[in-house]
Amino acid sequence: MPTTHLENRPLKVLLVGAGPALGQMVEEMLVSAGKGRFQLIRTEKIENALTRLEREAFDAAVLDAQSIAPSDGDRFELIRRIPESTATVVMADERDEQSAHEATRHGAQDCLVRGEFDAASLTRALRGAVQRQRRLCELRLDSQSVLRSEANFRQIVSRSADGLLTIDGGRILYANPACERLFGCGSEDLIGHPFEHPLDKGATTEIEIVRDDGGHTIAEMCVGRVLWEGEAAHVVSLRNITARRMAENMMINEAAHDGLTGLYNRRVMMETLEHEINRARRYDHPLCVLILDLDHFKKVNDVHGHLVGDKVLAATAQTLSACSRSIDVAARYGGEEFCVIMPETELVGAQTHAARLHATIYAIEHPAPDGATFHVTCSIGIAALNPAADKTQNLLEKADQALYQAKSEGRNRICLSG
Q1: Segment 346-364, tens digit of pLDDT
Q2: Which spans in 58-193 are helix H?
Q3: Global pTM value
Q4: Of 382, 377, 347, 379, the residue nearest 364 (C-alpha)
Q5: How many CB atoms are located within 10 Å of the residue 272 CB?
Q6: Residue 196 pairs with which residues in a beta bridge?
Q7: Which of 74, 99, 157, 185 could form a disulfide with 176 if both were Cys (CB 3.0 to 4.6 A apart)?
Q8: Are 344 and 285 in contact (CB under 8 A)?
Q9: Cα 380 to Cα 402: distance, rounded to the nearest angstrom
Q10: In degrees, to the nearest 5, what angle opens at C-alpha 126 toward C-alphas 123 and 128?
């Protein structure tokens, strides 16, 4: 049985119709891919190619569309006569885009433009085509089993964890029970409805399904061709990867955000600040940064406990997010320190924003374990970008020096960098 795994052996490739120069170039490209990765056999004549394909097993056939095209008749007959176990890659002229599309529609797995591919893209196309064709062969073998026993097919697909659809003319002819979880409705309700996603044969794509209940399902889709009740149709395999995508997005989110406050972490803040500094220089726009420190935060932890301290940090983070503009970037700088990057902001505007933050943070009533409430003040240092001199670290040091000045003057105040 075919398998999508490429064995540790050379892929046997038949090159058909290429002239001496093009054939030599293809051969040199495959040799450069590495010893023992490809075994290339060349033939100029279509008749010889068909004979060899009937007598020998090839992993792939590479066809020169221009030289193999007959002067009259069906130019894609050769593609259809290639055994289904052999993947097909067509080389076409860039001016012959229509033929390239037609070739893939008639069964070719890929199309390369002459003069625009190198060794890497050629070998990638060949290995990808072989993998897709082997998977299609698996689907075709499955479809043959369907024809031999409709009852067995129904039993197999009804127990499949993947959704399986049969589609003809853009409409669903059959849906297995697993589709109910994907689409949020009974499989029988899908019959006759249009399937609006492109059916690219052999390609594995990711689609988003809008469920009947308004939810969304992310599915990995693979398309093949089968005979359904004696007629050619598409068979679509749908694997639910919603949980996997959510987990990946969660990992990405966790890598960029502080776990306690939900703000961006220091790494993202540093990267963002560097980007904004470059943008401010490029367009000669203002940029300010403020660093905010909660006053006597150690006392909060010592008197009320670390759980209360964590809630104070979270409440401060919520205030920063609520008071900041959409273009501002708020981040946890470390410990009880926070940073706000303010693009398109002059020093006066940054000072106004800092004053609003200062007042809003103090106005928060934090509940203590004994039922009482308490307030927390903050100190803020502000620095404006000097495009001619400041880099990321310099700008942060200026804001940090202004913060140190605010704390040394008694805390609970805002200071600007000199």
Answers
A1: 999 999 999 999 999 999 9
A2: 65-68, 77-81, 97-105, 119-148, 150-158, 178-183, 187-190
A3: 0.50
A4: 377
A5: 17
A6: none
A7: 157
A8: yes
A9: 8
A10: 105
Q: Is 60 exceeded by the pLDDT of residue 146?
A: no
Cβ-based neighbours of 17, under 8 Å, separated by 6 or more = 44, 46, 49, 63, 64, 66, 67, 68
Residue 237 burial (10 A CB sphere; 0-12, 13-18, 19+): buried
- pLDDT for 193-202, tens place per residue? 888 888 876 6
pLDDT at 5 over 60: no
Map out the domains of the chain with their CATH numbers: 11-137 (3.40.50.2300), 150-243 (3.30.450.20), 257-416 (3.30.70.270)
Q: Residue 280: how many CA atoms within 13 Å on its side-chain side?
A: 27
DSSP element (H, E) containing 199: none
Measured CA distances, 341 to 30, 213, 278, 304, 362 (Å): 52, 41, 13, 31, 21
Backbone φ and ψ of 226, nearest 5°:
-140, 170
